[in-house]
Amino acid sequence: MGTGTSRARGMRHALSRFGxxxxxxxxxxxxxxxxxxxxxDLPDSLRAARNEGVPGTFTTTRKECRPWWExxxxxxxxxNFTSGDGRVQSTNVLFEGDPGEVGEKVPAQYVGTPDRPSIxxxxxxxxxxxxxxxxxxxGYLGWRGWRGWRFVRARLRPVTSARAE
Length: 165
What we know:
Strand content: 15-25%
Number of helices: 3
Number of strands: 5
Distance between the termini: 30 Å
Structural class: alpha+beta
Strand order of the largest sheet: 1-2-3-5-4
């Protein structure tokens, strides 16, 4: 009878370790995606912080809000951007920040590309958030790599006579 209980206990332990490994892998995949987002978004955010974009005006046409406890909670603002000289125009674009209520016009800058427009406010500080996400993801991946290296190194150590007994 002791064998069956110990076998069941061993199976539960194996499933628990498998689940922990699967969760760890999922966290690493999420961290890689967050790091990729930060790498892609940081240059535009830094350009916006230095006010190197095309200056213009953003008019809010739509504000979508969700309660903070729901997935994707908070407000997202869409609208139209027109540069000061009228040469650059984008409609139904996302504003990175809070431009106010629908119908309001705020000074803005266009720092994206035609296929990926990015509209920011003047003196945008979004780069701080993007950099923090990137550093957090890098730190997590570094920690996972260090733990993985310790695990592999422990398995590759030669068996000494003291351990063999």
